[in-house]
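Slide 14.
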Amino acid sequence: NMFISKFYRGLLFDYGMWNQLRVDKGREWFLMLFIQEKLCNLRGNTSIPPYLHSSSQL
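Slide 15: predicted structure.
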């Protein structure tokens, strides 16, 4: 989806790489997780995993 690609690209340009993403199991984050994994060596803190899956249930 072109909207999603532009959305994530804008986030990266505006805010840079995050040290870690925390997401639930929704598919909408797959592209961002892929980018985090591919660019993980460019993060500021490489001692933690580039992303963490957590449950959205309480």
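Speaker note: Residues 2-53 form one domain.
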